[in-house]
Amino acid sequence: MTIADVETTAPSGLSPRGPLSATTLAILMHADFAHRRDALVRAARDAVLASDDVPNDEDIQFSLFLLYASAYGSLDWIDPGWEWHPVLVEARGILEAGFEASLRRDAEVLAVPEAEASVIAAALFDLTAPSPGPSLSRFLAKKATIEHAREFLVQRSIYTLREADPHSWAIPRLTGRAKAALVEIQSDEYGGGRPERMHAEIFGRTMRGAGLDPTYGSYVDVVPAVTLAPLNAMSMFGLNRRLLGAIVGHLAAFEMTSSIPNRLYGDAFRRLGFGGEVTDYFDEHVEADAVHEQIAARDLAGSLGEERPELLPDIMFGAAACLLLDDRSADHMLSAFQSGRSSLRSVHE
């Protein structure tokens, strides 16, 4: 499949990926809720019990995406009244429990550092240090075709058209130095008061410049679970107050692994003949995230771990989960591109 084969989706065109997402879609679209309310909770339990790989389970990750979309308002066809409906919250909690358990099992946390800001920051820099060898960003910079580059944008759109929103849930849950640090980072993400410089807006212009639809959710049907999972992890960490440490650790790792890849992504699009309208997003992040990584490691994660040592294990877990899921998503795209396959899923899968 190529990008040209992809039709952007209207609400009624979203394709279920299994019994759980079929029930979730039916409820969110107001179809026969009275009959399906018990079925949703049963389907959530059955899906988690049956899955041996929750982060890559298409039915579970798509259902989580839909349930979180209600909280964000990112899909405007979902009635706001669903956001805190007890049945949907119960089903979401079941899926989150399975997802979190899988991440805690697989995300490698070698050691929890001492509760001192500088020591925490050093541990995070060690954890996020670049590794040699093949990478998606290097492949795109040197070898990618225009089709690869556009497919990459489609995959990234699922988070980046809502960039910064998942981490912003942490703002009211922090105090003092950590809160000030997060607000400083997020202010840049939201354009420093200039709506046209919001990073999500800049990415929308990147998509338009590459001939893609920047409407949020347009390509959700073809984005696989391996790409939905990183966004869902952010949402789970951000929306659950008990996971405050995890969302802070996630943001730290996210910022600390951004600058170098974005330089290479910008080089890729320049090599393919695109101009500033397309490369602006990546160029913006080379400079901004080089600053953000210091703030995130020292003033945000470091100060939070120093002030609240009980959150340190989750700070490191959130960082490790970020690296795990982002690596899986990038490896999926790289493997597909190198083997001549599309990284997108077919709606008939």
Describe the protein's architecture and organization:
The protein contains 15 helices and no strands. By secondary structure, it is mainly α. It has two domains: 3-106, no CATH class; 117-338, Heme oxygenase-like (Heme Oxygenase, Chain A). Helix 3 (58-72) crosses helix 11 (225-239), helix 6 (136-142) packs parallel to helix 13 and helix 12 crosses helix 14 (276-307). The longest helix is centred in the C-terminal third of the chain and has 32 residues, at 276-307. The two termini are 12 Å apart. Residues 3-10 have low confidence and may be disordered.
Task: Kindly summarize this structure in a few lines.
It is built from 15 helices and no strands.
Keywords:
Heme Oxygenase, Chain A, 2 domains, disordered N terminus, mainly alpha, single chain, globular, 349 residues, 65% helix
- Report strand %: under 5%
Low-confidence stretches: 3-10
CATH class (first level) name of the largest domain? Mainly Alpha
> How many domain units?
2
Biggest pleated-sheet summary = none
- Report how far the terminal alpha carbons are from each other: 12 Å
CATH fold name of the largest domain, please?
Answer: Heme Oxygenase, Chain A
Count of alpha and pi helical runs? 15
What is the global morphology? globular
Mean pLDDT across residues:
92
Helix content: 55-70%
CATH homologous superfamily placement of the largest domain: Heme oxygenase-like
Count of beta strands: 0
Structural class: mainly alpha
* Estimated radius of gyration: 20 Å
**SSE string, helix = H, strand = E?**
HHHHHHHHHHHHHHH
Second-tier CATH architecture of the largest domain: Up-down Bundle
